[in-house]
Write a structure and sequence with these properties.
Layout: E1 3-7, H1 19-25, H2 34-44, E2 47-51, H3 59-69, E3 75-77
Parallel strand pairs: 1-2, 2-3
């Protein structure tokens, strides 16, 4: 089982260019390969943490749209700016790396992503 930390806008859904107003006025659009990968992670028992710079005040619509799109998650962290996120973790007892970063192109989806570099 792994813990997967994933951004929302531009990573799993099309980036909301209209700002928070667009979150209310436009339906969210899931990107290619995302739902399938999330369901794979869920079936394997991985813990899915979503993180976003969106304000807490848009939690209800965000959760509603994620459910509509069929995206499972365990925890949703709101209000965490995306100007730079750093994951810090220890090295395993046999020297194995226990944390990885997988950058994806904005609005590119998950198709063609090399998940093997992080054991996914």
């Amino acid at each position: 089982m792994k813990t997967i930390l994933c951004d929302i806008d531009g990573t799993i859904t099309k980036h909301m260019h209209a700002g928070h107003g667009g979150i209310y006025n436009e339906p969210h659009e899931v990107l290619p390969g995302v739902v399938e990968k999330f369901r794979e992670w869920e079936a394997r028992g991985d813990r899915i943490i979503l993180i976003t710079g969106r304000r807490e005040s848009v939690r209800e619509i965000t959760e509603s749209e994620l459910r509509r799109l069929g995206i499972p998650w365990d925890t949703l962290l709101m209000g965490h700016a995306d100007t730079g996120r750093i994951l810090i973790n220890d090295i395993g007892h046999r020297g194995q790396t226990k944390c990885h970063a997988i950058p994806v192109a904005r609005d590119g989806g998950f198709e063609g992503t090399n998940w093997s570099i992080c054991g996914l």
